[in-house]
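Quarterly update, task 2.4: C2G-bound model.
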Amino acid sequence: MKRVITYGTFDLLHYGHINLLRRAKALGDYLIVVISTDEFNWNEKHKKCYFPYEQRKALVEAIRYVDLVIPEESWGQKRSDMHEYHIDTFVMGDDWKGRFDFLKEEGVEVVYLPRTPEISSSQIKQDLYDANAVTDGSRVNHDEIDTDPK
Ligand code: C2G
C-alpha cells in the first residue's frame, strides 16, 4: 500500500484544497493530511484561522480522498512523520517548491503539484470584506420569500 502525506492549514476549505487532495490521493492508496494547529498557525505562520483546528479537521476528514488527519505542531516534525507513518510520497502545492526537498534524505519521494490559480483562503476573506463594504450585509428574510408560488 502506497502511503502519501501532505500538510496544510485548510482554513475556509475551497476547491483549491480539494484539487490538491484529489491529486495527492491519486499518487497512492492511503492519504494522510497533517493539519496545522491553531497555535502553530499563529506562532509560526502568523495566520489566524476562521475555523479552529477541530472544525478544520472535521471538514477535511469528511473528504473522500482523505484516510487520516493528524495535527501539525512544528516545522520539525516532518522528518519523523515520514518514518512514524511509513510514508512513500510527500506532496505539497508548488508554492512550496523546493522547500521540503530535504525529505528525500528520509527516503521519500517529494512531489510539488501545481497550485489551483485564483483561489486562496486569504482571497476569500478579502473578497467577502470588500463585498460587505458595498452591501449593508443584511440577511435574507425568509418570510419575504414566496416558497409556494401559485
Ligand atoms: N493549495 C493549492 N491551491 C490553492 C490553495 C492551496 O494547491 N489555490 C495547496 C497548497 O499549496 C498546500 C495545500 O493546498 O499544499 C494547503 O494549503 P494551505 O492550507 O494554504 O497550507 P499552507 O498555509 O501553505 O501550509 O508545513 C506546510 C504548511 O503547513 C503548509
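Highlight for this quarter: Residues 121-134 form the longest helix (14 residues).
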